[in-house]
Specification:
alpha+beta; four-stranded antiparallel beta sheet; 4 helices; 28% strand
Length: 138
């Protein structure tokens, strides 16, 4: 599979305008973006999965640790990208960590219930989320 084919799901998947809780009718007063400094952790491995996250500003590193303590970086995400999406597939506990890479990294958390409510009323959002979840890096 070509590199271009592997990233098809990111094309036109700018979820920030339709997913950030501060921009969603009915959620704008319920959710405030969290502000992180460089190297602050957003979540740790084995932590309960409670939210899906949208990056409003900055970059976030997703990774894990080997038994010997070495860090494995799985992805580096930027503005408009989501992470913690495995909660949609039934993840109860995080297997990775998420860490801010820049000062003033703003992240919008959203509960699974809030996202499901938005998906019920927004076919475009639903399709984009399904594309992301359906991506297989094989």
């Amino acid at each position: 599979m070509s590199d271009k084919a592997k990233i098809w799901y990111f094309e036109d998947v700018d979820l920030f305008e339709i997913l950030c809780p501060r921009k969603s009718p009915g959620l704008e007063n319920k959710h405030n973006p969290n502000l992180y400094k460089r190297d602050d952790y957003i979540y740790f491995p084995e932590e309960n999965s409670q939210n899906i996250y949208m990056i409003a500003d900055g970059r976030v590193k997703i990774g894990s640790y080997l038994k010997d303590g070495k860090e494995i970086i799985k992805s580096i995400l930027g503005k408009g990208e989501i992470f913690g999406e495995l909660i949609l597939a039934g993840e109860d506990k995080r297997s990775d960590f998420a860490q801010a890479m820049d000062d003033n990294t703003r992240v919008c958390p959203m509960t699974l219930e809030d996202l499901q409510d938005l998906m019920k009323d927004n076919q475009v959002l639903s399709l984009k989320i399904f594309k992301i979840l359906g991506f297989s890096p094989t």
